Amino acid sequence: MLLETKTVEKPWGRTDLPAPFTAPHGQRIGEIWFVPPPELSGLLVKYLFTSEKLSVQCHPSDAQTEAMGIGRQGKEECWLVIDAEPGATLGIGFDRELGPDEMRAAALDGSIEDLLTWHEVSAGDFFYIPAGTVHAIGPGCSIIEVQQNSDITYRLYDYGRPRDLHLDEGVAVAKGEPYPASLKNYVGHGSDVGLVDGPWFRLDQLAGGPDPAISARYRGPLLVIPREGEVTVEGETVSPGQCALAREIDAVEFAEDGTCLIAQPMA
Prior knowledge:
Elements: E1 5-14, E2 29-34, E3 43-49, E4 56-58, H1 62-67, E5 77-84, E6 89-94, H2 100-109, H3 112-115, E7 116-120, E8 125-129, E9 135-137, E10 141-148, E11 154-157, H4 167-173, E12 184-186, E13 193-197, E14 201-207, H5 212-217, E15 222-228, E16 231-233, E17 236-238, E18 244-246, E19 252-253, E20 259-265
Antiparallel strand pairs: 1-2, 2-3, 3-10, 4-11, 5-8, 5-10, 6-7, 6-9, 8-12, 13-14, 14-20, 15-18, 15-20, 16-17, 16-19
């Protein structure tokens, strides 16, 4: 079943989108996301397109939101860069350890931007972003984001834009530490790559169809996100730029020469 698509304008969005997307005339598209189906309501897939820096921000964990009394609304996410302009960067983690008081002061005076580690990126770079990781997306990036379905974002710094900040909440959950290199990967074209295996969801890239080990791990409903070539889900064609729900992995016909992401919640 094809998922409903939402196209969202953002001030930091783009008028020129990478194929297969096109922006309506005069609109700055920042997000294209797919409405989570009831069967997999805890998992959200988005495309992000940036022409300006996004705010310096972080997200709480499930444990932290439960402690706040608002239930499980934590957010862990991951980014797969599908296109990047020369010199495009992602700010993830800090260059050094940072205490809460120093982080707050840096957010107030804007120096937090310079304390972030800015990773120069190109297509194929992959980053897993645990809850609490302080991060910002720079301009010139096109990204597939797979995340826990939560909209709680704590902005620490927003370059003077007239939007609310959330310093108390953000500093309380933020990790003032460098980003672990082990959470970064590279995803080549036409290759099988295991990208995420818990704790909240799993994500794999497949070149062609799944091998028996992958099929054994993906039991029950899953999301299918073609990158190159079409797939068929229960007789319905799914093209790059779309996302579909499959009731099981055996219900998906993968193109032998195609590349596809598959994702499934684990908790």
